[in-house]
Structure formats: C-alpha cells, structure tokens
Specification:
Chain A is α+β, with helices and mostly antiparallel strands and 713 residues long. Chain A has 23 helices and 23 strands. In chain A, strands 14, 15, 16, 19, 20 and 21 form a six-stranded mixed beta sheet that branches. A three-stranded mixed beta sheet of chain A has the order 9-13-12, with no helix packed on it. Chain A has a two-stranded antiparallel ribbon with strand order 1-2. In chain A, a hairpin with a 5-residue loop joins strand 10 and strand 11. The N terminus of chain A is likely disordered. Chain B is mainly alpha-helical and 210 residues long. In chain B, 65% of the residues lie in helices and 2% in strands. Chain B contains seven helices and two strands. In chain B, strands 1-2 form a two-stranded antiparallel sheet. Classes of the chains: A alpha+beta (713), B mainly alpha (210). At the A-B interface, helix 17 and helix 23 of A face helix 2, helix 3 and helix 6 of B.
C-alpha cells in the first residue's frame, strides 16, 4: 500500500498549520502501516463468499499512564490522552465530537430554540435532553434549589457513561474545566458537575472526583475488536471511572482482574521495549461488533439473536426493533421467530453484502471514504481535500449521520452520511414503479425496504405510574411473552409512518417504531416531573427486599382484589385515578400543578433492510383505502384519555381512541401528502358525489314523471 | 323514413363517439386509480395509471382534431349563444324540460344542420369544451408530467392541489355524462337522439311520439 502525502491539497487554514508539523508523522505512519498479520481480521471476517477486507495494522503501542509512564512500570490506569493523544493523535480535537460530548458542546439555548428542542432541555444530545426513556433530566447549571436537581453529571456517567465513550463529559465540568485540575471547584453546593443525589437520603451530596477519577476517551471500546462492554459498565456504574477504559481490555490478555477487582498488567503481553505485542490489541477501524455494543444488535452471520447485553437492551434494537445481521432469518436458532421457515432472506440486506457501520457512518475527513457534502460549493465529493497525515492526526469523530427522529445531537451536522442514493441508482431500477422521482421524493427508501421488522421493540415506557421496582411500566411489541423468555414467540411488527426532513429539507415519509410515554409534567416549572418526585408520591418507602411500598391511597385505588398492582392494574383508566396521583404529587412531592401527559415518540428504522424480493412493491399497499402509510399501529391498551398528547415537542392529535385499543393516527402528520387512492379531500368528495347523485336523482325523478304523465317519451 | 332529415355529419359523429368512449374509459380508469381496492379493473393500479394516461392523450388529440374541424368547417357557431334571444330561449327550453315535456308539448327548438343545439345545450357545451375539459386536461397533464416538469408541478400545488382538482373535475364530468345520456332520451322517441348520433339522421321533433 502506498500513501501519497499531498500537503498542497490542504483545505483549511488550521489543517494547513497542522500539516507542516505533521508531514514527518504522516510519512512515518504511512511507512509503518502495512497489511495486518493473518488473523487480524478475525473479528471482521466477511460473510461466506465475500473476499476479506484489507486491514491496516496500527504501529506498536506503548500504554502510558496519566504521567506519561509505561503502565507496565507504574501499574496505573491507562491514559488514552497520553497513549493515543501524546505525539500521534489530537486528543482534544477527537474528543470535541458528539460521541464524546453528547450535546455538551451544543448547550446553546438559541441553537436549541432554532431547532425546536424544548426549552427544559439543556442540550440536543443524550447529555442534556429529556427522553421518555428513562424520564431523567440533566440538572441545569446554576440551580439554587435542591428540588431542581435531578441527574447530575457524575450520576449521568454512572448510568449512561458505559456507552458514551469517555472524555468530554467524563473529564470536564460544565464550564470546561478538567475535574482533576486545581482550578476546578464547584460553583456552590448544588453544582451538577460536582454533586449527586444520594439514593438513601435523597439529599444532594458532593461527588469526590479524586476518588472516582475521570474516564478519559475509551478509544479501545471502538477500536479494539475484543473490547468488553460489560467490564466497562461495571466500573462506570460503581463510579470507578479511571479504570473503566482498562476494564474494556480484560479479554485482550493485556490486563488481568484479580478477585478483589484490582487490575494488573500481564508482562507477557508486552515486548521487551515496553510496547504491546502485535495481535493483542488489533487496533483497527470499528468493527460491527464494536458499534453493536451500544447501537443495536449487529453481526455478520449470527443465528442467535441476543440483544440484551450486560443487563442493557441494545439501543437500536430496543427502540426500533432493527437487527443488522447478514444471516438468513430462516437460519435463526434463537429466539423463536414466528414464520421464520418462510423467511429465506437475510435480516439485513446490507449486512449480507458485507457492509459495516463505517461504510456509511464514516469519519468525514477520511480521505478514503469522504463524501463531503458541501452545499455551498455544490460538491458531492472532494478528492484529496484532506491530507492523510491530517486525517491520521485529527480524524474527525463527528461521524457522518443522517437525520432521523428523535435524535437531535450534533445539530449542525445532520444528513452528512452516505445516503442510499450515493450507492444505488434507484432511477435505473424499480421498473415496476411509475412516477419514480415523485415516489423517491415522497418516500424514504426505508419505507418500502423495511416493510416490517421481525423482532421486538419497546411499545411503551410509562413513568407516570411506577411499579413496585420504583421504575416505569414497560410494554413491548412484536413478541408474545417476555423478552427474556426463550419460549416466547417473536412475531415482529410493521412500522408506523411519519414525515421527517430529508437532506434538502423537504418532508418524506419514513418507517418508525412508536414508543409511547405517559409521564407527569410540572406546569409550574415547565418541565417533566423528576422520577424521584414521582417516587415520593407513589411510595411510602422501600421494603426490606428492595421493592418499594405503595402508599395506601395508591393501593386502594389501583390494586386488584388481592392487593396486587401489576401491569393490568397500573393504568389510568378513570379521571379519578389521575386526580388521585395528581393530588399525591402536590402533597408529597410539592409539585404545584402537575399534568399527566402522553408523548408518542417515533424511532426511525434504518436497518433490517430487505432487497427487492421482500420490499413493498404493490401499488395498493399504499394507494388504497387501507394504506399501510396510515396504518393504525397499536400504542398501548391502557393509555389514559383526555390528557394532552405530545408529538415532536408539540401537542398534536396522534392518538385514535375510536378502536378497540388506542392506536396511532398520523392523518394530521401526513396532511401535506396527497396519496392517490388513499387521500380524500372531503369537500371534493362531497361536492363530487353530490353532483353525481343530483344527476341521477334528476334523471330518475324526471323520467318517472315523464312515464307517469302519459307514457310519453 | 321520408320524414328523416340529416343532422350530424360523419366527422361530428366520429368525433362525438370517440370523445364519449375516451371520456367513459377515462372515468373507469380514473375510478380504478381513485378507488384501487374497490374498483380493481385492468389488473392493477399501475396498469390503470398507464391506460389513463394513454386515454387522456387520445382525448386531447380528439379534442384538438374536433377544434380544428369546427374552426375550419366554420361549425363553431353551433356553440355560440345568440345574445339577442339567449335568455328568452334558455327559459323557454328550461320550461319545456321542467313542465312542457310532461304535457307532450312540442320541442321549442327544431334542430337543423345549421342550428343543432338549443340555448341550454349551447351554454353547457361551451362551458364543457372551453372550461371543464381544458381544466381537466391541464390538471391531468400536470400530474402526468410530475416527473418531467417537477418545478412546474410543484408551483401548481403538486398532488395536494392537482389531485383533488382533477378528481372534482372527474365527478363533474360523470354528472354531466349521466344528465347527457338521460336528456338524450327526450327526443321524439327515447332512442331517436341516439339513433341520430349514430346514423346522422333524425326524425323531426315537432310532434312528439305519444
């Protein structure tokens, strides 16, 4: 492999500055890079029949601690800032991206307002944006009342930090100060960067950053094929942040965890010069398995689908039911997929072709992959715009992404990913389809190419009523039985369709799973009621076995004859029950004006794509009275009535209570679409049929009178 | 047969029946598109769309040929109401349809090759051929050309405007067709108008068959 360094092609001023000092680095890295040793592609082996992808080997690596010493000597946690960042990669540049920041670098109220993000959110990303799952909010900076504290930065890291890859929010406070820097001092006793709400007492107490350490960027989680999410999760959840990145490596053979939970480095894994032996880390582009750990069930050829890892349901599968897997559904061993014998096609057509996540979700300045959308210059591709040396030093980790609901992180870089049209020339296929451009404009490709998903997903997550676990009432769709029951039948489900903004800003129809939340909103504070406040209203305390004890008022109103409150009882089926809990929130949690709300959240389906053999291609699927585009997806059997319904941050009537069970009604959302054969302009139909009926009646009456009046013609 | 008189030329009859056939088939295929699951003819919606487009062009061609014929043969005057007695004539014709016809009164207008249409027919066909038909052709063409002239299609409101507009036009044409066919039975005998449009010869209407 030959890499040519062309600094004359540098585009940006800062890149140009960097490049002058980078040239030797780029050349040396280029010289060091070679095809990996046999076996290095094991984790990335392509499907049968596909040629192996060439893979680059990373130069020998010295693992350094925060002081720059080899960890083999110091025994201290690995510092990626020193190890990866040192002389080779620009650590600050890399970590100033949304995988590390999750909205922290977008905490700008004007930016949020301009993108329609509700004002009670502090960012558009996971770090700062309310979601009905899990009904938690990042505490705003500058609060003066402990009642305004929900999820502090340290608590966020213990809950969400396993996936969110360190650095950024795991290293610096809301003001951008490194937690271990002497200048980093809390702004008062409620500073959300330096406190946490104590579970036992409920009080807001200080967080000891010196004890927890910080979680630097966990480069290994994504770049080491044998990375272990579970071990990282354990460290993050117990607040042992500094060792989280080391825990990720427990299966590489570099580090060993003793019974006491301490890590020691394995000397045999290192060369005499202190570098890690080749083949242990296999640092590489993120594999499917790396991305899968956080994003959804993803595999090349898996016949057992297990999207629950380390007590977490993998996100994309949990939210939208998609499975990115090259194996055929008919070959699935577990779980029991209903009708799988007839599904002689892969879970995902792209996975079956050997595509990996970064083929579409690439680093924007990777010269080998770059499809740099540049609207102002009308460029779809800028060959050689970035020098490989620049890329190696500063690989942009704001990975190319689409624009799918409800994700809003990285607001200014939506629709940067490789789209379907960048690989497929849709106009040259689809022979059966009339009015191609009209269809391609109105419909996302996924609308026909993800006609259904053959897995389960969340249907509702309702924090408006808490179970005796202290958590929400959750229901699933696409499965008959429990999600951990091996005998449960996975029926899969068909999507609901909603309009979303395409790359050029026009609305297009897209398939989604709908997750319905029922939660309490604090109208006085203008934000959802915090979970700990709802717990105060529902429970008198915590029992000895860890479950919570309902207040007598709750039991009296909701429990069955045997005093049990399970899913069927945990519903607001009368106005009196809503009023009761409203009163309890006022009485025990001090909420002035609580309001029960329903929020219907669409989670776009982007994977589980099928080829033309299984894609929707019947005209009447959409162009008929019972168009799938207006499919009334069931929401939840027990949604409360006469409460505000929120969709996309606004109150929109998207629930139809007219059928047996509340169902999604997208008529208002799709009002701007005229679907021939399905859409009806009411006044046109009335006027039209009235005129036809008038003509018929005239003929009948007139003719009858003619006959009666003497049999005349 | 000796009392028969020539009324419609071959050109007029061919034009009329082609127009009628196109219009009826357009309505049928249009219904197959508007109600694809309830009115499934022609083997599917895509095929109905294809036929609808071809029939539309056939109707446009026939309309253009008809226009050419009426202009060059100076037949257009049949459709132009005479303003000096239009109101009185229209009232007289309306009274006949609403009253006189039941008493066996003679037709107020006796058509002849120079005066084929009564005042109500004139105003109806004038509107039909110069307003409704162009409206239907324009909305249909714009929808047909959505792929070819997407900007114009969008400027004209896209499917959101054109779809309902074209549908309304279709309903009005269907209503016209029903009324037209019924009124065609009000000749000397129920079939005399129909026979005239087929053979070109019509019995005088003066004394109605009893």
């Amino acid at each position: 492999m030959r890499i040519v360094v062309r600094s004359s092609r540098l585009g940006r001023e800062d890149d140009r500055k960097s490049a002058s000092g980078l040239r030797p680095l780029g050349i040396s890295l280029a010289l060091l890079i070679a095809l990996a040793a046999p076996g290095a592609t094991a984790a990335g082996s392509p499907p049968a029949g596909m040629p192996p992808r060439p893979k680059l080997a990373h130069p020998a690596l010295t693992l350094r601690d925060a002081s720059g010493r080899n960890v083999l000597e110091s025994g201290a946690p690995i510092s990626t800032r020193q190890t990866c960042g040192g002389d080779c990669h620009d650590y600050e540049f890399i970590t100033d991206s949304f995988h590390f920041q999750q909205g922290k670098n977008e905490m700008d109220s004007e930016l949020l307002k301009s993108h329609g993000v509700a004002p009670f959110n502090s960012s558009p990303g996971m770090f700062g944006k309310f979601s009905i799952i899990p009904n938690r909010q990042l505490t705003h900076a500058g609060i003066t009342d402990p009642e305004d504290a929900d999820m502090s930065q340290p608590e966020w890291l213990t809950k969400c930090g396993v996936c969110h890859t360190g650095a950024g929010i795991s290293e610096k406070d809301l003001k951008g100060r490194h937690f271990l820097d002497p200048s980093a001092v809390p702004d008062g006793s409620l500073d959300p960067s330096y406190t946490i709400r104590d579970r036992a007492s409920g009080a807001v107490v200080p967080w000891d950053w010196k004890k927890s350490g910080v979680a630097e960027a966990d480069c290994f989680l994504c770049h080491v094929p044998k990375a272990v999410r579970g071990a990282r999760r354990e460290r993050m959840s117990r607040g042992d942040f500094r060792w989280a990145g080391v825990a990720t490596l427990v299966e590489t053979g570099i580090v060993r965890e003793d019974e006491g939970g301490a890590f020691t480095y394995v000397r045999e894994a290192f060369n005499p010069d202190g570098t890690v032996k080749m083949g242990l880390l296999n640092l590489s582009d993120p594999t499917l398995e790396n991305c899968a750990m956080c994003h959804g069930f993803t595999a090349r050829d898996a016949t057992t689908i297990q999207p629950i890892q380390h007590a977490d349901i993998m996100r994309g599968t949990e939210k939208a039911g998609w499975i990115y897997n090259g194996a055929k559904i008919s070959d699935t061993v577990s779980p029991k997929i209903l009708g799988r014998d007839k599904m002689d096609f892969p879970w995902d057509a792209h996975a079956a072709k050997g595509l990996v996540c970064i083929d579409c979700h690439f680093s924007p300045n990777n010269p080998g992959r770059m499809v740099q959308s540049d609207a102002e210059k009308h460029l779809a591709y800028r060959p050689g715009a970035d020098d490989p040396a620049v890329y190696l030093k500063r690989p942009d980790h704001n990975f190319a992404r689409g624009n799918i609901p409800p994700e809003t992180v990285n607001l200014t870089r939506h629709n940067t990913m490789r789209g379907c049209g960048d690989c497929h020339e849709a106009e040259k296929g689809h022979e059966f389809l009339p009015y191609k451009s009209l269809h391609f404009k109105a419909l996302a490709c996924q609308t026909c190419h993800i006609p259904e998903v053959h897995f389960w997903a969340y249907r509702s997550d309702e924090w408006g009523f808490l179970m005796d676990t202290g958590t929400s009432r959750i229901t699933f769709r696409g499965i008959e039985g429990g999600i951990v029951d091996p005998d449960a039948k996975v029926t899969g489900f068909k999507p609901a369709y909603v309009p979303t903004r395409a790359k050029d800003g026009h609305l297009e129809i897209r398939p989604t799973n709908l997750i319905t939340g029922v939660y309490w909103f604090d109208k006085g504070k203008g934000r959802p009621v915090f979970t700990w406040q709802v717990q105060k209203a529902f429970f008198a305390g915590k029992g000895s076995e860890g479950s919570w004890d309902y207040r007598p008022e709750i039991t009296a109103a909701f429990a069955d004859k045997e005093g049990i409150i399970d899913l069927p009882q945990a519903v607001y089926d009368t106005p009196e029950k809503i009023a009761l809990v409203r009163g309890l929130l006022q009485k025990y949690a001090g909420i002035g004006d609580p309001e029960l709300r329903i929020e219907v959240v669409p989670w776009a389906m982007s994977h589980s794509t099928v080829g033309k053999g299984q894609a929707t291609n019947e005209c009447t699927a959409c162009h008929a009275r019972n168009s799938i585009l207006r499919r009334p997806l069931d929401l939840d059997d027990a949604l409360p009535k006469n409460v505000p319904i929120v969709y996309g941050g606004k109150q929109v009537s998207v629930v139809d209570y007219g059928g047996q069970a509340p169902a999604f009604d997208n008529r208002e959302l799709l009002a701007s679409f005229y679907i021939i054969g399905n859409s009806r302009a009411g006044w046109v139909e009335w006027l039209g049929w009235l005129s036809v009926a008038g003509a018929v009646i005239f003929a009948l009456v007139h003719g009858t009178i003619r006959i009666i009046s003497g049999g005349r013609s | 047969m000796s009392s028969l008189k020539p009324l419609y030329t071959l050109h007029e009859r061919v034009w009329h029946w082609l127009q009628a056939a196109a219009m009826i088939l357009l309505l049928l295929t249009g219904f197959a598109i508007h109600y694809p699951d309830r009115f499934g003819i022609l083997g599917g919606m895509a095929r109905a769309v294809g036929w609808h487009s071809w029939l539309g062009f056939a109707l446009i061609l026939n309309a253009a040929l008809g226009l050419f014929y009426h202009v060059t043969a100076e037949k257009y005057h049949h459709y132009l109401p005479k303003m000096d007695d239009f109101t009185e004539g229209a009232i007289r014709q309306a009274r006949f349809y609403l009253y006189g016809i039941f008493r066996g009164d003679p037709h107020p207008y006796e058509p002849d090759p120079r005066h084929k249409l009564n005042p109500l027919q004139k105003v109806t066909y004038l509107a039909l051929l110069n307003l409704f038909l162009p409206f239907q052709v324009a909305t249909g063409l714009l929808m047909w050309g959505a792929n070819r002239w997407p900007d114009l299609f969008e400027k004209m409101g896209g499917l959101r405007m054109l779809g309902p507009a074209h549908t309304l036009g279709a309903y009005l044409f269907l209503a016209f067709l029903i009324g037209h066919i019924y009124l065609a039975t009000t000749g000397r005998t129920p079939s005399s108008h129909l026979r005239a449009m087929i053979t070109g010869w019509e019995e005088p209407r003066g004394e109605r068959a009893g």
